[in-house]
Every structure is written in structure tokens, then in C-alpha cells.
Design goal:
Blueprint lengths: L1 E5 L3 H15 L7 H9 L3 E7 L6 E10 L6 E9 L8 H14 L5 E6 L4 H10 L3 E6 L17 E7 L12 E5 L5 H7 L1 H20 L3 E6 L3 E5 L1
Parallel strand pairs: 4-5
Antiparallel strand pairs: 1-2, 2-3, 3-4, 5-7, 6-7, 8-10, 9-10
Helix pairs in contact: 1-2, 5-6
């Protein structure tokens, strides 16, 4: 049995910090004090739990905070699952919970960033959830020792319009594609130099395609990123 609920005690907040640390490595994404402050000020701080009452384990967490009031937006800082719990549809359930939570508070759009080299995230965000890529930022967070394995942290900016889910582009509308590795996370362990070469290659090609005025309109697991005019 699984459930999603607010992390409304210090103990749960500390558990969430430990879970995120175990996923992201030595570079802490967010500390317990900040999580507690976000939760107490009414932002989205939840955990995903697996198991029966009294025997539950936190297996995922999601943190988002409100943007500028006039824009009716939230920014999703991180949504993460333990590796053994990925590929079961639980990540989608967690994001849908976030979507409904935002809807109930008159939020119309959730933004976030993600590493454009990670194919599983590109597929999940752009194809499964129907979010839209709105831009590319070079080395957005500086050098990461955790999530990017010491490489520069280029990011795609994403907007998820909660009442207007994006559809994949028609094949006839696709004017360019951009391939990425199927599993760059494993590559960063086995061959970090090759992973860095992919980072530089993708950065250059993304810059060229956006510079031509093309729009990143979707992702295909075989062809990669799909661009339209």
C-alpha cells in the first residue's frame, strides 16, 4: 500500500533529507531546515510512502514552492524516487498529486529544470506529463558533485501548464531531431570523459537549433529531442 502525505513533523523532514541525500550523493539538494521552513510557510513538501501503517518506508519526496503571486506559478525544486521504485508509475502519481495540490490553490503552471542528457527524465517530463521545454541554460547550478557527477549542470527549463497538457508533434511537423545517450547516468560512472563530450556536443547543437528559431516540441526515445518551426 502506498500513500502521499505532507511532511509535517521534524522526524519526517529529516527522513526526507536523508532520502534525497541518498539519491543525489554528497552535494545536498536541500537541507532539513529549509525543508521545514518551506513546509511551515505553506509550500508543497510531501513524501511518498510504501507499506502498511506502522511499517511504512518513505520511498520518494517532492518539494515545490510558490512563485510570484501575480503569475500563479509554483517551482518544483525536486521530485525523486529511490531507484528500486522507479518504472512503476509512482513518479507519475507523485507529479499528479502535485498537479492537483497546485490546482486547489489556484496555481495554473508549475516550472522546473532538468538535465537534458537524462533520457528517462526527458521522456517522463515531455512525453508522459506533457510539459513544455521553454529554454536551455548553460551550467545553471555550477559544478555538481552529485547529480551531474562533477560535470557542468546545463539544464532545460520546463513549464507544465496544468490545464493545457502538451501533445507530441506530428511527424510531418518535425524539422530536426537531436539524439542523446540512452543512459548517461551509467556513462558518468563508466566513462566520465565520454559523458562530458556529450554535454559539450548537446550544448552546441541545442544552441544552434534554438538560434535558428526552432521550438523544442517533444521527445522520442529513439530519435531524441524533436524540433518544429
Amino acid at each position: 500500500m502506498r500513500n502521499i502525505r505532507d511532511l509535517d513533523t521534524v522526524e519526517l523532514i529529516i527522513d526526507a533529507q536523508s532520502l534525497l541525500d541518498s539519491i543525489r550523493g554528497p552535494e545536498r539538494v536541500v537541507d532539513a531546515g529549509t525543508l521545514r521552513a518551506l513546509q511551515q510557510s505553506g509550500n508543497y513538501v510531501v513524501g511518498l510512502f510504501d507499506g502498511e501503517d506502522g511499517q511504512e518506508q518513505m520511498v520518494g519526496a517532492s518539494i515545490a514552492f510558490f512563485g510570484a503571486p501575480a503569475k500563479r506559478r509554483m517551482h518544483s525544486h525536486i521530485t525523486a524516487l529511490l531507484p528500486d521504485y522507479r518504472g512503476r508509475g509512482w513518479g507519475r502519481e507523485l507529479k499528479e498529486h502535485q498537479r492537483q495540490w497546485a490546482f486547489s490553490r489556484d496555481v495554473g503552471c508549475i516550472t522546473w529544470t532538468f538535465d537534458p542528457l537524462v533520457a528517462r527524465n526527458a521522456h517522463f517530463f515531455l512525453t508522459v506529463l506533457g510539459a513544455r521545454a521553454t529554454g536551455y541554460t548553460v551550467n545553471n547550478y555550477g559544478i555538481f558533485g552529485g547529480g551531474d557527477a562533477g560535470d557542468e549542470s546545463d539544464r532545460l527549463d520546463v513549464e507544465w501548464a496544468l490545464a493545457d497538457i502538451a501533445k507530441p508533434p506530428a511527424d510531418a511537423a518535425v524539422v530536426a531531431t537531436l539524439e542523446i545517450p540512452s543512459d548517461v547516468e551509467s556513462m558518468r560512472v563508466s566513462d566520465p570523459d565520454a559523458a562530458h563530450e556529450w554535454r559539450m556536443r548537446l550544448r552546441g547543437e541545442m544552441g544552434e537549433l534554438f538560434g535558428r528559431g526552432l521550438r523544442l516540441a517533444g521527445f522520442d526515445v529513439t530519435r531524441g529531442y524533436l524540433f518544429t518551426e
